[in-house]
Amino acid sequence: MLQGYRDGSFLSSLIHVLTQLKGGQSWILLFSLSGLHMVLLNTVKRPKIVYSFSLLIIVGMILTQSMTGHSANTNSFQGALFHTIHFIAVGAWSGILLVVSFFSDWEHHWESFVGWFTKVAIGCIVWVILTGVAMSLLLSESIVGSWMLSYGQALLVKHLLFIVLLLFAFVNGFLIKRLVAEDAGFSPKRWWKAESLLVVFIYTITGYMTEQETPHNIAQTLEQQEPSVLFRLFTTVDGLGPLTLAPNLISIASLVLAFIFLLFTAVMVKRNSLSGTFFVSAMVVWCLYLGLMSSVSLS
């Protein structure tokens, strides 16, 4: 059946994916819910009805995605629950951020908004971290060992970028809060847009991860595919097997450099240099990545 699907025409393959595979069936449902949402937004004129049904549709989309994600497939109920909470927390935090950053016309008097959004963001971040760690443990046989696979490499980069995202969240949540309190004419949208772009980049990596094999059985996966190109490029591990972290001169030096660059981010923020903050943050990610990968060895 699988061979026939691979050898068939594009149309027959598409029909097979959409009707026979769980991912395809969920895509049809998501597409239908999206279409229903568009019709609702463009036909119903009563805001309360639109908002109420929109909320139900969005929750339905979140549940659909959560039920068919990697976490649900690996650990059915618990994985789906973690994914749902994670999705809601990420959506609430980043959704508000994206909309306000790019679609709001307001340019001053942000104090009240920053006050309540900071509290919402902190709550969402806590849930994102807790559920993210839980899903990583559910999906990964070994966190370090997963770095041999493309999924593990993407997850590592995603986690490192999340550290930078937390830095921007701290700037936008606390330092910017002080600035808007001192100057009613100050607009934080420039910094929010930077944080939003970082969120979109993390979303992109997450999308890539959905197409990769999860590291719940690393040895079995490596029988079917080669180790990640990045793993082979940045480690000196010769052979396959259980991995561990063994710090060495290069890894320690890289981590020290990461800490130094992290200190420089404070300087860039103080200078209100967005490009400088981005560059220094990228160097933090690079040094952390190099430090971790150079310390990988066979256990």
Detailed description of the structure:
- Its main location: membrane.
- This protein has 299 residues and is mainly α.
- The protein folds into two domains: 68 residues, no CATH class; 230 residues, no CATH class.
- Strands 1-2 form a two-stranded antiparallel ribbon.
- The chain is flat and about 60 Å long.
- The mean pLDDT is 85.
Which assembly state applies to the chains in this document? single chain
Helix share of residues? over 70%
Number of domains: 2
Helices and strands: which structural class? mainly alpha
Principal-axis shape equals flat
Helix count, per DSSP?
A: 13
Strand proportion: under 5%
Determine the mean pLDDT. Answer: 85
Placed side by side, the strands forming the largest sheet appear as 1-2
Radius of gyration: 22 Å
Alpha-carbon distance between the termini? Answer: 41 Å
Order of helices and strands: HHHHHHHHHHHEHHE
Q: Which residue ranges are poorly predicted, with pLDDT under 50 across at least 5 consecutive positions?
A: none
What is the number of strand segments? 2
Largest sheet: 2 strands, antiparallel
Question: Which terms would index this structure?
Answer:
two-stranded antiparallel ribbon, 2% strand, 2 strands, 77% helix, Copper resistance protein D domain-containing protein, membrane, mainly alpha, CopC/D, 13 helices, 299 residues, cell membrane, Cu-R_CopD_dom
